[in-house]
């Protein structure tokens, strides 16, 4: 009988322990009703993701804590929270587990460098009028700030809070979104805390990824090489290698094609390298390519005009007229060329010839040519 009772007691203890151990694995509502949230912002190739738990101004029992958040629920300065190992803990910048920031690439926060990675985020909140300190910690897996250790800091920066629209739930977001930067912000109750995130050397990131992509499928077509070279020319980066890429688009075995567009790409790289004489020779070859169209040649002439090269532009427009006589784009080009040289009567003559040949239904160019004729009739430049 005693053995039977002992067995039942041991079984009951085992079931209690088993139940306790595995009760932690069931799905329960968020602690305190502080639901998890996540927001991601891309800046070109880079991204930043904020994961956080979001408390609200009203307590779980419904108490309105408006006016009691900053300095009370969220205390100023560093504090002993009465639990864990930290005796000088910042605010967890959210609820429950660490708020985390994940950066796909190296960034600058408020102008200071931070390596790519995932960081626990904390804030030292200060009294009115004082900047707050943002802390990015190497420890991103803790619960709250109870075990915060300053030795694990990756970066500290200051940011100044401002008055914000009333926000019931603590919210992170992004604004002032640019190709290489954005402003992240925390907004809760009537406070908003903005801080800048910038990706340095974005062009280098693009060059690095294009370099890898050209070793794969992108490198098996001339368009891939030409696109990469054009990017470098437009951004004035990696120009020597870009010239190799441009040549690959033209003459790489089994891939390269000598076309107007690919020659134009090479000329753009040469101009970025300040090798204008070589660029001009390449473009002279480009406009004489069998496949060069009236519009491509006209576009090159317009480009020269915008660069202030009036005589060179006029030669291109005249070559276009010889190659594609009596077409309306040719006459538009000659009108622009003569106008740039101050010969408005000749320009007006060709503008009227263009007007007579603009395709029916082409409202955009019909209106453009009509505007040219009106200005030239007044002796005004049309460029």
Structure in words:
The chain is of the alpha+beta class and 383 residues long. It folds into two domains: 31-198, no CATH class; 202-377, Tetratricopeptide repeat domain (Serine Threonine Protein Phosphatase 5, Tetratricopeptide repeat). Helices cover 40% and strands 21% of the residues. It has eleven helices and ten strands. Strands 1-2-3-6-7-8 form a six-stranded antiparallel sheet, with no helix packed on it. The chain has a four-stranded antiparallel sheet with strand order 5-4-10-9, with no helix packed on it. Helix 4 (239-251) runs antiparallel to helix 5. The protein is elongated, with a radius of gyration of 33 Å. Mean pLDDT is 92; it is low at 1-23.
What would you say about this model in short?
By secondary structure, this protein is of the alpha+beta class.
Structural class of the secondary structure composition?
A: alpha+beta
Main sheet attributes: strand count, strand direction, barrel closure: 6 strands, antiparallel
Counting DSSP H or I runs of 4 or more residues, the number of helices is 11
Proportion of residues in helical segments: 40-55%
Mean pLDDT: 92
CATH class of the largest domain: Mainly Alpha
Q: Strand-residue fraction?
A: 15-25%
CATH architecture of the largest domain: Alpha Horseshoe
Q: Low-confidence parts lasting 5 or more residues at pLDDT below 50?
A: 1-23
Please, how many domains? 2
The counted number of beta strands is 10
